[in-house]
Amino acid sequence: MVRHGSRRGYARMLEAFWDEAHAFGLELPTEEAVSKQAFCQARKKLPAALVRDLLHTASDAFDDDHGSSLRWRGRRLLAVDGARRNIQPSDELRRAFGGPEGAHYPQIHVTTLFDVVGKVPLAVEVGPFGSDERAQLLRVLDRAREDDVLVLDAGYGSFDVFAALLDAGVDFACRMPASQTFTKLERFVASGDEEALLTLSPPEGSALSGTESIALRAVRVERLNDEFWVILTSLPADEFSVDDIAEAYALRWTIEEFYKLLVSDYFEQGFFHSRSADGVRQEVYAQMLFVVMTRNIAAVAADTHGVSYDELSQKAAILAVGDHLTRLVLHSTPATARANLKRLLKRIARARERLRPGRSYPRTSQLPLPRWGRNGRRGGA
């Protein structure tokens, strides 16, 4: 279902799957495709939590098999980001997730914990439209490990988040706004210094009010056209230079490319198929699971053919695994399975993308606006 994305409904998807299996000589339990009603009933018996557990198992297996060569300064480099997605206009989904006032469609808020070097989602939280992104971050934090480094964009920075990360043993580098932030950080920005050690106390109204202060390192990273980043980090100065911090934060861009992949023409799930809350969660987890499967096979292709993992095309890998999925799952003999897998690895290894050194200009698109935008309204971006 994930492979076909939003291009087909249940009935056409099932018919295509049965025809494909027959063309490859693969046996299915029935001669004709099952009905979409039977498929929907079967899906309801599959808990979304089970698909989420499969996602966790697959991402852990990826790290066990390939993670040692996909590190930043010997450590896992992670990012967290969120995105809103339109879903079907059912009463159950409106009650469960809500949406923008006056919008045609309800929306979910999807938060992903992502390995930016391995390009693999580690955990996903599906919440209502109005979810607090900092609270969502804390719900996926249990999938991080001690000694990981988490890079965060502006909007996640708060005393409570920093304290939770330190308690979990997770280092971080968080971009901060230059104003309307911690008073001590605003003074640091005004000083023009490259870095300083700041002691921050819990603000009034914080759930941690009255607890101990925390010491963090503030760094200023110069950019083009007199612009700069202000980053708060727990990474020590004697091990990580300002350039190291800048590099770590810049690598966060990989999670933006990941979200771009999820809404691409060839992988987009549209409004998702399900009209139930658990069904939507199931589909979100399944799309993420498909990405992990693809990245695992791509890593094997890189090792087998001696090419750089970073240079492999994510688009080509997604399409290749989709084309081979039926044969991979329903292979008739081990010899046939090996031959199909060998062909798949070779196809993935051939498709390369030139590494992009960075972005000097904002992204622009010549495509027409989508009919329904992220705000759930017609014609919006």
Give an account of the 3D structure.
With 381 residues, the protein is α+β, with helices and mostly antiparallel strands. The protein has twelve helices and eight strands. An eight-stranded mixed beta sheet has the order 3-2-1-4-5-8-7-6, with helices on both faces. β4, α6 and β5 (171-176) form a beta-alpha-beta unit.
Q: What structural keywords apply?
A:
8 strands
How would you summarize the topology of this molecule?
Blueprint: H1 10-23, H2 36-44, H3 48-66, E1 77-86, H4 91-97, E2 107-115, E3 120-128, H5 133-140, E4 149-152, H6 159-167, E5 171-176, H7 183-191, E6 195-200, E7 214-222, E8 228-233, H8 242-250, H9 253-262, H10 277-305, H11 314-329, H12 334-350
Parallel strand pairs: 1-4, 4-5
Antiparallel strand pairs: 1-2, 2-3, 5-8, 6-7, 7-8
Nutshell version of this structure?
By secondary structure, the protein is α+β, with helices and mostly antiparallel strands.
Basic shape? globular
**What radius of gyration results from the CA coordinates?**
23 Å
Number of helices: 12
List unreliable stretches of 5+ residues.
360-364
Task: Count all strands and give the number.
Answer: 8
State the secondary-structure class.
alpha+beta
Query: N-to-C terminal Cα separation, in Å?
Result: 26 Å
* Strand order in space, largest sheet: 3-2-1-4-5-8-7-6
Question: Oligomeric status of the shown chains?
Answer: single chain
Mean pLDDT: 90
For the largest beta-sheet, the strand count, sense and barrel status come to: 8 strands, mixed
Beta fraction: 15-25%
Sketch the topology as an H/E string, one letter per element.
HHHEHEEHEHEHEEEHHHHH
What proportion of the residues is helical, as a percent range? Answer: 40-55%
